[in-house]
Amino acid sequence: MCGGRMELADPNTGGDPAACFDIERARAETAGCGGVIHLNNAGSALMPRPVLSRVMRHLELEAHVGGYEAAELAVADVRRIYESAATLLGCLPSEIALTENASRAWQLAVQSVPLSPGDRVVIGVAEYVSNKLVLDAVSTTTGAEVVVVPDDEHGRFDVEFLRTVLDERTKLVAVTHVPVYGGPVNPVHEVGRLLRDAPVLYLVDACQTVGQLRVDVSDIGCDLLTTAGRKYLRGPRGTGLLYARSSSMSALRNVCLDTRGLRWFGNGEVGVRRDAKLFEAWEASFATRLGLGAAIDYALSWGIDAIWQRIRSLSARLTERLGYVPGVLLPDSGVEGCGLVRFRLPGNDPHRIRRELRRAGINVSVSERELAPLAPTQREETAQLRASVHYYNTEDEIDRFGDVLELLLKNNA
Hints:
The chain is of the alpha/beta class.
Protein backbone atom coordinates (compact mmCIF):
# COMPACT_ATOMS: atom_id res chain seq x y z
CA MET A 1 0.00 0.00 0.00
CA CYS A 2 1.04 3.57 -0.60
CA GLY A 3 -0.58 6.06 1.77
CA GLY A 4 -3.82 4.11 1.63
CA ARG A 5 -3.50 3.57 -2.11
CA MET A 6 -3.00 0.33 -3.96
CA GLU A 7 0.33 -0.31 -5.67
CA LEU A 8 0.23 -1.47 -9.25
CA ALA A 9 2.73 -3.66 -11.00
CA ASP A 10 4.33 -2.31 -14.16
CA PRO A 11 4.43 -5.14 -16.77
CA ASN A 12 7.49 -3.52 -18.34
CA THR A 13 9.57 -3.61 -15.16
CA GLY A 14 9.29 -7.25 -14.25
CA GLY A 15 6.32 -6.78 -11.95
CA ASP A 16 7.83 -4.08 -9.73
CA PRO A 17 5.32 -1.59 -8.29
CA ALA A 18 5.33 1.36 -10.66
CA ALA A 19 2.35 3.41 -9.64
CA CYS A 20 -0.08 4.07 -6.82
CA PHE A 21 -3.78 3.91 -7.59
CA ASP A 22 -5.88 6.03 -5.28
CA ILE A 23 -8.71 3.56 -4.71
CA GLU A 24 -10.06 5.60 -1.82
CA ARG A 25 -10.52 8.63 -4.08
CA ALA A 26 -12.04 6.50 -6.85
CA ARG A 27 -14.66 5.12 -4.49
CA ALA A 28 -15.33 8.42 -2.76
CA GLU A 29 -16.07 9.96 -6.16
CA THR A 30 -18.42 7.09 -7.10
CA ALA A 31 -21.70 7.39 -5.23
CA GLY A 32 -22.82 3.86 -6.12
CA CYS A 33 -19.90 2.25 -4.33
CA GLY A 34 -21.67 2.92 -1.04
CA GLY A 35 -24.66 0.75 -1.89
CA VAL A 36 -23.78 -1.90 -4.43
CA ILE A 37 -21.00 -4.20 -5.62
CA HIS A 38 -21.11 -3.29 -9.28
CA LEU A 39 -19.67 -6.03 -11.50
CA ASN A 40 -21.59 -5.05 -14.63
CA ASN A 41 -19.21 -2.41 -15.93
CA ALA A 42 -19.21 -3.91 -19.42
CA GLY A 43 -22.93 -3.20 -19.47
CA SER A 44 -22.95 0.26 -17.93
CA ALA A 45 -20.41 1.45 -15.37
CA LEU A 46 -21.18 3.67 -12.39
CA MET A 47 -20.81 7.35 -13.27
CA PRO A 48 -18.35 9.32 -11.12
CA ARG A 49 -19.56 12.48 -9.42
CA PRO A 50 -17.80 14.91 -11.84
CA VAL A 51 -19.69 13.34 -14.76
CA LEU A 52 -23.04 13.45 -13.00
CA SER A 53 -22.37 17.03 -11.92
CA ARG A 54 -21.58 18.12 -15.49
CA VAL A 55 -24.78 16.60 -16.86
CA MET A 56 -26.96 18.11 -14.15
CA ARG A 57 -25.29 21.52 -14.45
CA HIS A 58 -26.19 21.79 -18.10
CA LEU A 59 -29.75 20.56 -17.54
CA GLU A 60 -30.14 23.23 -14.89
CA LEU A 61 -28.83 25.80 -17.36
CA GLU A 62 -31.32 24.66 -20.00
CA ALA A 63 -34.13 24.93 -17.46
CA HIS A 64 -33.18 28.50 -16.60
CA VAL A 65 -32.15 30.03 -19.94
CA GLY A 66 -33.50 27.67 -22.64
CA GLY A 67 -32.01 24.80 -24.61
CA TYR A 68 -30.66 26.78 -27.58
CA GLU A 69 -29.29 29.50 -25.32
CA ALA A 70 -27.60 26.94 -23.07
CA ALA A 71 -25.99 25.36 -26.13
CA GLU A 72 -24.59 28.73 -27.17
CA LEU A 73 -23.06 29.19 -23.72
CA ALA A 74 -21.49 25.73 -23.91
CA VAL A 75 -19.80 26.09 -27.32
CA ALA A 76 -16.26 26.09 -25.89
CA ASP A 77 -17.00 23.13 -23.64
CA VAL A 78 -18.48 21.15 -26.52
CA ARG A 79 -15.40 21.88 -28.63
CA ARG A 80 -13.24 20.43 -25.86
CA ILE A 81 -15.13 17.13 -26.06
CA TYR A 82 -13.66 16.54 -29.51
CA GLU A 83 -10.20 17.52 -28.29
CA SER A 84 -10.43 15.16 -25.33
CA ALA A 85 -11.74 12.30 -27.46
CA ALA A 86 -8.92 12.88 -29.94
CA THR A 87 -6.39 12.65 -27.10
CA LEU A 88 -8.03 9.45 -25.89
CA LEU A 89 -7.99 7.76 -29.30
CA GLY A 90 -4.81 9.24 -30.76
CA CYS A 91 -6.36 11.16 -33.66
CA LEU A 92 -7.45 14.62 -34.75
CA PRO A 93 -10.52 16.36 -33.28
CA SER A 94 -11.95 16.61 -36.81
CA GLU A 95 -11.90 12.80 -37.00
CA ILE A 96 -14.37 12.44 -34.10
CA ALA A 97 -18.16 12.30 -34.36
CA LEU A 98 -20.47 12.26 -31.34
CA THR A 99 -23.35 9.81 -31.68
CA GLU A 100 -26.36 8.66 -29.68
CA ASN A 101 -24.76 5.27 -28.96
CA ALA A 102 -22.19 2.83 -30.27
CA SER A 103 -24.69 0.76 -32.27
CA ARG A 104 -25.76 3.86 -34.17
CA ALA A 105 -22.14 4.78 -34.79
CA TRP A 106 -21.41 1.29 -36.13
CA GLN A 107 -24.48 1.35 -38.35
CA LEU A 108 -23.48 4.70 -39.84
CA ALA A 109 -19.93 3.47 -40.40
CA VAL A 110 -21.03 0.33 -42.26
CA GLN A 111 -23.70 2.08 -44.30
CA SER A 112 -21.14 4.64 -45.47
CA VAL A 113 -19.07 1.93 -47.18
CA PRO A 114 -19.92 1.75 -50.93
CA LEU A 115 -20.88 -1.85 -51.71
CA SER A 116 -22.02 -3.59 -54.89
CA PRO A 117 -23.14 -7.11 -55.78
CA GLY A 118 -20.22 -9.51 -55.37
CA ASP A 119 -18.33 -7.34 -52.89
CA ARG A 120 -17.26 -8.88 -49.59
CA VAL A 121 -17.58 -7.76 -45.99
CA VAL A 122 -15.44 -9.82 -43.62
CA ILE A 123 -16.40 -10.13 -39.95
CA GLY A 124 -15.57 -12.36 -36.98
CA VAL A 125 -17.76 -14.74 -35.01
CA ALA A 126 -17.77 -12.31 -32.06
CA GLU A 127 -19.87 -9.75 -33.92
CA TYR A 128 -22.58 -8.21 -31.75
CA VAL A 129 -26.16 -9.05 -32.71
CA SER A 130 -27.17 -5.50 -33.75
CA ASN A 131 -24.06 -5.32 -35.95
CA LYS A 132 -24.99 -8.63 -37.53
CA LEU A 133 -28.53 -7.41 -38.21
CA VAL A 134 -27.18 -4.29 -39.92
CA LEU A 135 -24.91 -6.43 -42.07
CA ASP A 136 -27.79 -8.72 -43.03
CA ALA A 137 -29.78 -5.69 -44.18
CA VAL A 138 -26.82 -4.22 -46.06
CA SER A 139 -26.14 -7.56 -47.73
CA THR A 140 -29.77 -7.82 -48.84
CA THR A 141 -29.90 -4.32 -50.29
CA THR A 142 -26.47 -4.26 -51.95
CA GLY A 143 -25.87 -7.88 -52.91
CA ALA A 144 -22.60 -7.93 -50.99
CA GLU A 145 -21.45 -11.17 -49.37
CA VAL A 146 -20.70 -11.46 -45.65
CA VAL A 147 -17.72 -13.73 -44.89
CA VAL A 148 -17.23 -14.94 -41.32
CA VAL A 149 -13.74 -15.51 -39.92
CA PRO A 150 -13.60 -18.16 -37.15
CA ASP A 151 -11.68 -17.84 -33.91
CA ASP A 152 -8.25 -19.43 -33.60
CA GLU A 153 -7.28 -22.02 -31.00
CA HIS A 154 -7.06 -19.30 -28.36
CA GLY A 155 -10.56 -17.97 -28.98
CA ARG A 156 -9.32 -14.88 -30.83
CA PHE A 157 -10.08 -13.57 -34.32
CA ASP A 158 -8.02 -15.77 -36.67
CA VAL A 159 -5.70 -13.42 -38.58
CA GLU A 160 -4.23 -16.23 -40.67
CA PHE A 161 -7.69 -17.26 -41.84
CA LEU A 162 -8.38 -13.64 -42.72
CA ARG A 163 -5.28 -13.68 -44.90
CA THR A 164 -6.73 -16.56 -46.94
CA VAL A 165 -10.06 -14.84 -47.69
CA LEU A 166 -8.75 -11.39 -48.58
CA ASP A 167 -9.03 -10.65 -52.29
CA GLU A 168 -10.02 -7.87 -54.67
CA ARG A 169 -13.69 -8.34 -53.76
CA THR A 170 -13.10 -7.45 -50.09
CA LYS A 171 -14.25 -3.91 -49.32
CA LEU A 172 -14.58 -3.96 -45.52
CA VAL A 173 -13.11 -5.89 -42.61
CA ALA A 174 -14.92 -5.43 -39.27
CA VAL A 175 -13.43 -6.76 -36.03
CA THR A 176 -14.82 -6.62 -32.50
CA HIS A 177 -12.00 -5.70 -30.11
CA VAL A 178 -13.48 -7.67 -27.19
CA PRO A 179 -16.64 -9.80 -27.55
CA VAL A 180 -19.72 -8.76 -25.61
CA TYR A 181 -19.51 -12.02 -23.66
CA GLY A 182 -15.87 -11.49 -22.67
CA GLY A 183 -12.76 -13.48 -23.34
CA PRO A 184 -9.40 -12.63 -24.91
CA VAL A 185 -8.67 -9.30 -26.57
CA ASN A 186 -8.81 -9.70 -30.33
CA PRO A 187 -5.59 -8.93 -32.30
CA VAL A 188 -6.78 -5.71 -33.91
CA HIS A 189 -3.21 -4.44 -34.34
CA GLU A 190 -2.24 -7.56 -36.29
CA VAL A 191 -5.27 -7.14 -38.53
CA GLY A 192 -4.28 -3.52 -39.08
CA ARG A 193 -0.78 -4.52 -40.14
CA LEU A 194 -2.21 -7.08 -42.56
CA LEU A 195 -4.53 -4.51 -44.13
CA ARG A 196 -2.06 -1.62 -44.14
CA ASP A 197 -1.40 -1.68 -47.88
CA ALA A 198 -4.67 -3.27 -48.97
CA PRO A 199 -7.48 -1.21 -50.57
CA VAL A 200 -9.82 -2.33 -47.81
CA LEU A 201 -11.64 -0.28 -45.18
CA TYR A 202 -11.08 -1.45 -41.61
CA LEU A 203 -13.68 -0.99 -38.85
CA VAL A 204 -13.14 -1.78 -35.16
CA ASP A 205 -15.93 -2.14 -32.61
CA ALA A 206 -14.19 -1.00 -29.42
CA CYS A 207 -17.25 -0.82 -27.16
CA GLN A 208 -15.71 -2.98 -24.46
CA THR A 209 -12.18 -1.59 -24.58
CA VAL A 210 -12.14 2.21 -24.78
CA GLY A 211 -11.65 3.40 -21.22
CA GLN A 212 -10.40 -0.02 -20.13
CA LEU A 213 -7.14 -0.29 -22.07
CA ARG A 214 -5.15 1.89 -24.44
CA VAL A 215 -6.87 2.23 -27.81
CA ASP A 216 -4.82 4.26 -30.31
CA VAL A 217 -6.30 4.33 -33.80
CA SER A 218 -2.95 5.23 -35.33
CA ASP A 219 -1.36 2.14 -33.81
CA ILE A 220 -4.28 -0.06 -34.80
CA GLY A 221 -4.37 1.30 -38.33
CA CYS A 222 -8.16 1.32 -38.62
CA ASP A 223 -10.21 3.62 -40.82
CA LEU A 224 -13.25 3.59 -38.56
CA LEU A 225 -13.79 2.86 -34.87
CA THR A 226 -16.87 2.97 -32.66
CA THR A 227 -17.38 2.90 -28.92
CA ALA A 228 -19.93 3.62 -26.19
CA GLY A 229 -19.84 6.23 -23.46
CA ARG A 230 -21.66 4.24 -20.79
CA LYS A 231 -19.25 1.33 -20.41
CA TYR A 232 -15.61 1.64 -19.36
CA LEU A 233 -15.56 5.38 -19.99
CA ARG A 234 -18.17 5.72 -17.21
CA GLY A 235 -20.18 8.28 -19.15
CA PRO A 236 -23.95 8.72 -19.44
CA ARG A 237 -26.14 6.34 -21.40
CA GLY A 238 -27.12 7.54 -24.85
CA THR A 239 -23.61 8.62 -25.85
CA GLY A 240 -21.08 7.19 -28.28
CA LEU A 241 -18.06 8.01 -30.41
CA LEU A 242 -17.29 7.36 -34.05
CA TYR A 243 -13.74 7.80 -35.32
CA ALA A 244 -13.35 8.28 -39.08
CA ARG A 245 -9.85 8.71 -40.49
CA SER A 246 -9.62 11.92 -42.50
CA SER A 247 -7.72 10.24 -45.34
CA SER A 248 -10.50 7.64 -45.66
CA MET A 249 -13.42 10.08 -45.91
CA SER A 250 -13.17 10.26 -49.70
CA ALA A 251 -13.78 6.49 -49.86
CA LEU A 252 -17.05 6.77 -47.89
CA ARG A 253 -20.46 7.75 -49.17
CA ASN A 254 -22.78 10.23 -47.50
CA VAL A 255 -25.41 8.74 -45.20
CA CYS A 256 -28.17 10.19 -43.03
CA LEU A 257 -27.40 13.78 -43.90
CA ASP A 258 -29.11 16.59 -42.02
CA THR A 259 -28.15 20.20 -41.38
CA ARG A 260 -25.20 19.09 -39.24
CA GLY A 261 -23.48 17.54 -42.24
CA LEU A 262 -24.68 20.03 -44.85
CA ARG A 263 -23.84 23.60 -45.64
CA TRP A 264 -26.31 25.74 -47.58
CA PHE A 265 -24.94 28.44 -49.88
CA GLY A 266 -26.79 31.59 -50.90
CA ASN A 267 -27.13 30.46 -54.52
CA GLY A 268 -29.05 27.33 -53.50
CA GLU A 269 -26.06 25.00 -53.73
CA VAL A 270 -25.39 22.49 -50.97
CA GLY A 271 -21.98 21.65 -49.57
CA VAL A 272 -21.23 18.44 -47.68
CA ARG A 273 -18.81 18.20 -44.79
CA ARG A 274 -15.76 16.06 -45.39
CA ASP A 275 -14.86 15.39 -41.78
CA ALA A 276 -16.27 12.99 -39.18
CA LYS A 277 -19.02 15.40 -38.15
CA LEU A 278 -20.72 14.38 -41.37
CA PHE A 279 -22.06 11.46 -39.30
CA GLU A 280 -23.60 13.63 -36.60
CA ALA A 281 -27.21 14.68 -36.14
CA TRP A 282 -27.96 18.35 -35.52
CA GLU A 283 -30.38 17.61 -32.68
CA ALA A 284 -28.67 15.99 -29.70
CA SER A 285 -28.55 15.94 -25.93
CA PHE A 286 -25.96 18.55 -25.01
CA ALA A 287 -26.13 17.57 -21.34
CA THR A 288 -25.15 13.95 -21.95
CA ARG A 289 -22.53 14.92 -24.53
CA LEU A 290 -20.94 17.24 -21.99
CA GLY A 291 -21.14 14.36 -19.52
CA LEU A 292 -19.29 12.18 -22.02
CA GLY A 293 -16.60 14.84 -22.31
CA ALA A 294 -16.30 14.95 -18.53
CA ALA A 295 -16.02 11.15 -18.46
CA ILE A 296 -13.22 11.16 -21.02
CA ASP A 297 -11.34 13.84 -19.09
CA TYR A 298 -11.86 11.87 -15.89
CA ALA A 299 -10.45 8.69 -17.45
CA LEU A 300 -7.46 10.59 -18.82
CA SER A 301 -6.82 12.09 -15.37
CA TRP A 302 -6.33 8.59 -13.96
CA GLY A 303 -4.20 7.44 -16.88
CA ILE A 304 -5.40 4.69 -19.24
CA ASP A 305 -2.36 2.52 -18.57
CA ALA A 306 -2.90 2.74 -14.80
CA ILE A 307 -6.58 1.87 -15.30
CA TRP A 308 -5.63 -1.14 -17.43
CA GLN A 309 -3.14 -2.43 -14.86
CA ARG A 310 -5.74 -2.09 -12.13
CA ILE A 311 -8.43 -3.87 -14.17
CA ARG A 312 -6.08 -6.70 -15.12
CA SER A 313 -5.19 -7.23 -11.47
CA LEU A 314 -8.84 -7.30 -10.40
CA SER A 315 -9.80 -9.55 -13.31
CA ALA A 316 -7.11 -12.05 -12.33
CA ARG A 317 -8.41 -11.96 -8.75
CA LEU A 318 -11.98 -12.51 -9.97
CA THR A 319 -11.00 -15.43 -12.18
CA GLU A 320 -9.04 -17.01 -9.33
CA ARG A 321 -11.91 -16.60 -6.85
CA LEU A 322 -14.47 -18.06 -9.25
CA GLY A 323 -12.18 -21.03 -9.77
CA TYR A 324 -12.69 -21.99 -6.14
CA VAL A 325 -16.50 -21.97 -6.35
CA PRO A 326 -17.88 -25.52 -6.78
CA GLY A 327 -20.08 -25.76 -9.84
CA VAL A 328 -18.52 -22.85 -11.72
CA LEU A 329 -16.92 -23.56 -15.08
CA LEU A 330 -14.49 -21.03 -16.55
CA PRO A 331 -13.37 -21.06 -20.21
CA ASP A 332 -9.63 -21.36 -20.59
CA SER A 333 -8.32 -19.69 -23.74
CA GLY A 334 -4.67 -19.90 -22.78
CA VAL A 335 -4.17 -16.16 -23.29
CA GLU A 336 -4.72 -13.15 -21.08
CA GLY A 337 -8.22 -11.75 -21.02
CA CYS A 338 -9.54 -8.40 -19.83
CA GLY A 339 -12.05 -7.01 -17.36
CA LEU A 340 -14.90 -9.20 -18.66
CA VAL A 341 -15.07 -12.67 -17.11
CA ARG A 342 -17.62 -15.17 -18.41
CA PHE A 343 -18.49 -18.27 -16.40
CA ARG A 344 -20.95 -21.13 -16.67
CA LEU A 345 -23.20 -22.65 -14.02
CA PRO A 346 -24.45 -25.98 -15.42
CA GLY A 347 -27.87 -26.89 -14.10
CA ASN A 348 -28.67 -23.37 -12.90
CA ASP A 349 -30.83 -20.66 -14.43
CA PRO A 350 -28.51 -17.68 -14.99
CA HIS A 351 -31.38 -15.20 -14.76
CA ARG A 352 -32.41 -16.52 -11.35
CA ILE A 353 -28.83 -16.40 -10.09
CA ARG A 354 -28.49 -12.83 -11.35
CA ARG A 355 -31.68 -11.83 -9.54
CA GLU A 356 -30.55 -13.45 -6.30
CA LEU A 357 -27.17 -11.74 -6.54
CA ARG A 358 -28.95 -8.44 -7.13
CA ARG A 359 -30.98 -8.93 -3.97
CA ALA A 360 -27.65 -9.37 -2.18
CA GLY A 361 -26.46 -6.04 -3.59
CA ILE A 362 -24.25 -7.48 -6.35
CA ASN A 363 -24.68 -6.60 -10.03
CA VAL A 364 -23.67 -9.01 -12.79
CA SER A 365 -25.21 -9.69 -16.21
CA VAL A 366 -26.41 -12.71 -18.16
CA SER A 367 -24.51 -13.51 -21.32
CA GLU A 368 -27.40 -14.19 -23.70
CA ARG A 369 -26.67 -16.48 -26.64
CA GLU A 370 -28.52 -14.09 -28.93
CA LEU A 371 -26.06 -11.23 -28.26
CA ALA A 372 -23.40 -12.88 -30.40
CA PRO A 373 -25.30 -15.35 -32.59
CA LEU A 374 -22.27 -16.46 -34.61
CA ALA A 375 -20.05 -17.37 -31.64
CA PRO A 376 -19.81 -21.11 -30.89
CA THR A 377 -19.39 -20.42 -27.14
CA GLN A 378 -22.69 -18.56 -27.16
CA ARG A 379 -24.55 -21.53 -28.60
CA GLU A 380 -23.89 -23.73 -25.58
CA GLU A 381 -26.94 -24.98 -23.71
CA THR A 382 -25.45 -24.37 -20.28
CA ALA A 383 -25.92 -21.16 -18.32
CA GLN A 384 -23.50 -18.27 -18.68
CA LEU A 385 -23.04 -15.21 -16.53
CA ARG A 386 -20.69 -12.27 -17.00
CA ALA A 387 -18.94 -10.29 -14.30
CA SER A 388 -16.94 -7.24 -15.37
CA VAL A 389 -14.67 -5.26 -13.07
CA HIS A 390 -13.57 -1.64 -13.09
CA TYR A 391 -10.82 0.16 -11.21
CA TYR A 392 -13.15 1.30 -8.40
CA ASN A 393 -13.94 -2.30 -7.47
CA THR A 394 -11.95 -3.84 -4.62
CA GLU A 395 -10.52 -7.23 -3.77
CA ASP A 396 -12.92 -7.43 -0.82
CA GLU A 397 -15.87 -6.93 -3.17
CA ILE A 398 -14.65 -9.74 -5.41
CA ASP A 399 -14.24 -12.05 -2.43
CA ARG A 400 -17.72 -11.10 -1.20
CA PHE A 401 -19.13 -11.89 -4.63
CA GLY A 402 -17.45 -15.29 -4.59
CA ASP A 403 -18.76 -16.06 -1.11
CA VAL A 404 -22.34 -15.09 -1.98
CA LEU A 405 -22.29 -17.01 -5.25
CA GLU A 406 -20.92 -20.09 -3.51
CA LEU A 407 -23.67 -19.92 -0.90
CA LEU A 408 -26.38 -19.49 -3.53
CA LEU A 409 -25.18 -22.50 -5.49
CA LYS A 410 -24.95 -24.59 -2.34
CA ASN A 411 -28.49 -23.68 -1.29
CA ASN A 412 -29.80 -24.37 -4.78
CA ALA A 413 -28.10 -27.74 -5.09
